[in-house]
């Protein structure tokens, strides 16, 4: 479970102060898949970085499975699997397998656990043909698959994904979406941002909408559709922004 309580994040310099998040509060229940929606610059990545302990909130608090991101960051990191858009976190001079082994060791996994998990993920994401090739020669889609596998290598309870299907072809994107549904069945908690509304509608139980650092909507999709008398999520989102609504 993720709990966000009145979180504000400001970035200050000598010339100006920018409020990236402004008193944002919501929760992601255990075992649910929640979509994080917002235009570029809305504060989505800042929020995900704060949950992952990379940013400290200026005010407010964040808890992951009962652990505070500021007071117990190491415990939070053990619970999390994180993938930020455009940042694969991979080492070009290592093979895909060597990269995955390296991150597995960081999480204290045994050699047997690591081997089983790598083989399982390689099959799921169709990576067996290039598992022992150096990552530096990979296409964007191939790198993204390995990065997703890195995120999931330690079987985390809570998963944060920022634009996870960026760079994947249609087949790989569909495989990934099916895998998300499998993780949900396993009781995993997922929060992910996406610009692909069909993806959100297919995978998510509920959505969180953010605009200019403020919460616009939090709740399940069926309630949103009922309230807006529409199932066009893109239209609903743009309509809420046009009306200037905040939660």
Give me the number of helical elements. Answer: 9
Strand content: 25-35%
- Mean pLDDT comes to 91
CATH topology: Rossmann fold
Determine the oligomeric state from the structure: single chain
Instruction: Please indicate the count of domains.
Output: 1
Biggest pleated sheet: 6 strands, mixed
Task: Write a structural description.
This protein has a single domain, classed as 3-Layer(aba) Sandwich (Rossmann fold), CATH 3.40.50.300. It is 38% helix and 26% strand. The chain is built from nine helices and ten strands. The protein has helices at 44-51, 73-79, 96-106, 111-124, 140-152, 170-185, 197-203, 221-228, 233-243; strands at 2-12, 17-28, 33-37, 59-64, 67-68, 80-83, 158-162, 189-193, 206-211, 214-220. Strands 6-7-8-3-9-10 form a six-stranded mixed sheet, sandwiched between helices. It has a four-stranded antiparallel sheet with strand order 2-1-4-5, with helices on one face. Helix 3 crosses helix 4. It comes from Pontibacillus yanchengensis Y32. InterPro entries: AAA+_ATPase, ABC_transporter-like_ATP-bd, ABC_transporter-like_CS, ABC_transporter_ATP-binding, P-loop_NTPase.
Q: Which descriptors would you attach to this protein?
A:
ATP hydrolysis activity; 4-stranded antiparallel beta sheet; Rossmann fold; 247 residues; alpha/beta; 6-stranded mixed beta sheet; ABC_transporter-like_ATP-bd; 26% strand; 9 helices; ABC transporter ATP-binding protein
């Amino acid at each position: 479970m993720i709990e966000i309580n009145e979180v504000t994040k400001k970035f200050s310099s000598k010339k100006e102060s920018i409020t990236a998040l402004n008193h944002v509060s919501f929760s992601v229940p255990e075992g649910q898949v929640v979509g994080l929606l917002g235009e570029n610059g809305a504060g989505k990545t800042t929020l995900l970085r704060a949950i992952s302990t990379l940013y400290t909130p200026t005010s407010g608090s964040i808890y992951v499975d009962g652990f505070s991101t500021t007071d117990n960051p190491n415990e939070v990191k053990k619970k999390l699997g994180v993938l930020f858009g455009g940042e694969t976190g991979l080492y070009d001079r290592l093979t895909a397998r060597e990269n995955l082994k390296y991150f597995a060791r960081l999480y204290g996994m045994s050699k047997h656990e690591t081997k089983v998990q790598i083989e399982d993920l390689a099959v799921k994401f169709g990576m067996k043909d290039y598992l022992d090739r150096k990552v530096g020669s990979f296409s964007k889609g191939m790198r993204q698959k390995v990065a997703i596998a890195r995120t999931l290598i330690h079987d985390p309870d809570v998963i944060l994904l920022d634009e996870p299907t960026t760079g994947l072809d249609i087949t790989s994107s569909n495989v990934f979406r099916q895998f998300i549904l499998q993780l949900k069945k396993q009781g995993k908690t997922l929060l992910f941002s996406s610009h692909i509304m069909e993806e959100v509608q297919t995978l998510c139980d509920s959505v969180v909408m953010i605009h200019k650092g403020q919460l616009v909507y939090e709740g399940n999709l069926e309630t949103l559709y009922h309230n807006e008398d529409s199932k066009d999520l893109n239209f609903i989102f743009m309509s809420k922004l046009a009306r200037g609504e905040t939660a």
